[in-house]
Amino acid sequence: MWKYVARRTVEMIPILIVISVLTFLFIHFIPGDPARLVAGKDATLEDVENVRHEMGLDKPILKQYVDYMKNLVTGELGTSLTTGLPVIDMFKTRFMPSLQLTFLSMFWATLMGLAIGVFSAINKNKWPDYFGMVTAVSGISIPGFWLGLLLIQLFSVQLGLFPTGGLDGFSSYILPSLTLGAGIMSMIARFTRSSMLETLQADYIRTGRAKGLKERSVIVTHALRNSLISVVTVAGLQFGFLLGGSVVVETVFSFPGMGRLLIDSIAFRDYPVIQSALLLFALEFILVNLAVDVLYTVLNPKIQLDS
Fold this sequence. Notes:
- The protein is an all-alpha fold and 307 residues long.
- 78% of the residues lie in helices and 0% in strands.
- It has helices at residues 2-29, 34-39, 45-55, 61-73, 87-122, 127-141, 144-158, 171-200, 203-210, 215-252, 258-267, 271-299.
- The longest helix is centred in the last third of the chain and has 38 residues, at 215-252.
- It is globular, with a radius of gyration of 24 Å.
């Protein structure tokens, strides 16, 4: 397994280089002049050109990219154009809240998704099944920003149970995590139901029941465990998308995380922050997929990753 992990780690390098090129070109071709934003709206043309020279934006774009990669290799992510702070220091304060929000969202989404999926499967075509699938379809159909505003109006404004935004203790994570995890919960519930229905028709399940195994043992120990591989695949992919989805949710809840930082940086054309944040999101997505592949062997030791 470790050989496989090492090989996948080496394979990340060209992928990250391609992503760095695409993000570098993308943010340099979006409309707006960062030198003008930094110099201020009352700055003269000469002032703007001086700022552009100081920022290195008057160099050929290939030279700018090479300088960026040289700094990146040494761990130097640059300095924010808007705050003047090192980008790495800004990430230190924003990354952990986003990561905690993502894990909390994934935790309850997985728990609820598995519960709804299993309960629907063992009650196929009965009212619990219909109720579970209506809940799942609702969760994936409602846009995140609308659900977030609805939760703020109900639980913050009307009931006063949770803060409307910002970060002030664990209660600040509740509504954003519910908003962020709703779609993932729906996906996991639907895949769990489908996978469980297929597994429950397998011969070894019928054999287990014929031998007198308790129904709970058949469902939890045998059927659910073998259904988890496809569910883990979906959950892993969705976990990667959670990192991107946090951009919208953090904006709705004014949550001081990486998503909000990225939105603010795009508004002010803060190149160093945008480039590093997008690269970090890509790295997280790749690492999550690697973790999912490794998790396969835990659920089913017969799977050989190296092959």
